[in-house]
């Protein structure tokens, strides 16, 4: 009788222990899940689709490294947002993030815009001027529409990536640079390489870590959240947003891209 009683007590003790371990596992699981959510918290990037989560996990992975990143994707998919997110999560976060749209600078001025120029380097160069690489020193430079970079400037950029140095236009002093380079393109760079207008060696340097941002039509789950976000962002003060009872989300993605296209409030 005594032995039976003791066996029962031991069994109860074992159950207690199992319950205690189970509770601990549960708590640890909650903590880990919160940790993952925190790591994935991209307050500036709206959406929760699996396709976007894949992009964000790439951001988490590459951010702390100094690797070049090539972000590709259609217009308006948020490539610049992704570039900023990488910078924000890198050891360079406290330094400058300099964004340059290569397509918006005339071919004749792009080298001076990126690398600066010395006084008298060309007609109109009345003063010495620092380029974007100098401004981005210790930080990150984001070169958007990289496919538009003229051949000559492609060579200078390759030199920056290989030797970490450059010269101002019209100068003969070699300047060292410590800048992380992130580029983006909405056009197919392999076609540009095949056509002989983009250097393959530069492409391989830039493409060390490729990130492809999927278009909204491939992540329709994100549309309702984005609509809400944009409506709140662009709503005139004093107005209130109400959803139409007959409105059936997801909306046609073209309608959303029109909302986005009217955005002129780029962060400074
Ligand atoms: N997932 C998102 N969450 C919040 N805002 C977004 C998201 N995707 C895009 N946007 C917003 O849409 C606008 C366009 O994004 P962005 O300029 O980064 O696109 P892009 O891919 O660089 O476009 P382009 O190819 O035209 O240069 C920006 O105002 C950006 O903040
Ligand atoms: Mg862009």
Question: Would you give an account of this structure?
Answer:
There is one protein chain. The chain is of the alpha/beta class. The chain contains ten helices and seven strands. The strands form two sheets. A five-stranded parallel beta sheet has the order 2-3-6-1-7. A two-stranded antiparallel ribbon has the order 4-5. A hairpin with a 6-residue loop joins β4 and β5 (174-176). α9 runs parallel beside α10. Bound molecules: adenosine-5'-triphosphate (ATP) and magnesium ion.
Tally of separate domains: 2
Class of secondary structure makeup? alpha/beta
- Report the average pLDDT across residues: 85
Radius of gyration: 26 Å
Ions, cofactors and other bound molecules: adenosine-5'-triphosphate, magnesium ion
CATH homologous superfamily title of the largest domain: P-loop containing nucleotide triphosphate hydrolases
- What sequence of helices (H) and strands (E) makes up the elements? HHEHEHHEHEEEHHEHH
Q: Kindly state the percentage of residues in helix.
A: 40-55%
CATH architecture annotation of the largest domain: 3-Layer(aba) Sandwich
Arrangement of strands in the largest sheet: 2-3-6-1-7
CATH topology of the largest domain: Rossmann fold
Terminal CA distance reads 81 Å
Shape: elongated
* Count of distinct strands: 7
Which parts are unreliable, with pLDDT below 50 for 5 consecutive residues or more? 250-254, 264-268
Largest sheet, in brief, is: 5 strands, parallel
CATH class of the largest domain: Alpha Beta
Distinct helical segment count: 10
- Share of β-strand residues: 5-15%
């Amino acid at each position: 009788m005594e032995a039976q009683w003791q066996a029962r007590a031991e069994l109860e003790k074992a159950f207690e222990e199992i319950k205690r371990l189970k509770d601990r596992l549960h708590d640890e699981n909650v903590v880990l899940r919160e940790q993952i959510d925190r790591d994935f918290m991209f307050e500036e990037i709206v959406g929760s689709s699996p396709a976007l989560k894949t992009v964000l996990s790439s951001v988490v992975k590459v951010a702390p490294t100094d690797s070049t990143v090539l972000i590709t994707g259609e217009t308006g998919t948020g490539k610049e947002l992704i570039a900023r997110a990488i910078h924000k999560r890198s050891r360079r976060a406290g330094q400058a993030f300099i964004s340059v749209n290569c397509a918006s600078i005339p071919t004749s001025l792009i080298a001076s815009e990126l690398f600066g120029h010395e006084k008298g380097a060309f007609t109109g160069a009345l003063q010495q001027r620092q380029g974007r690489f100098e401004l981005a020193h210790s930080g990150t430079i984001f070169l958007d529409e990289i496919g538009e970079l003229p051949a000559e400037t492609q060579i200078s950029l390759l030199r920056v990536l290989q030797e970490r140095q450059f010269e101002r236009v019209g100068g003969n002093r070699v300047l060292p640079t410590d800048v992380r380079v992130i580029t983006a393109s909405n056009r197919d760079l392999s076609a540009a390489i095949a056509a002989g207008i983009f250097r393959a060696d530069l492409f391989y340097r830039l493409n060390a870590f490729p990130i492809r941002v999927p278009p909204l039509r491939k992540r329709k789950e994100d549309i309702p959240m984005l609509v809400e976000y944009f409506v709140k962002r662009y709503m005139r003060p004093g107005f209130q947003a109400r959803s139409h009872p007959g409105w059936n989300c997801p909306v046609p993605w073209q309608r959303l891209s029109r909302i986005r296209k009217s955005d002129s409030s780029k962060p400074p």
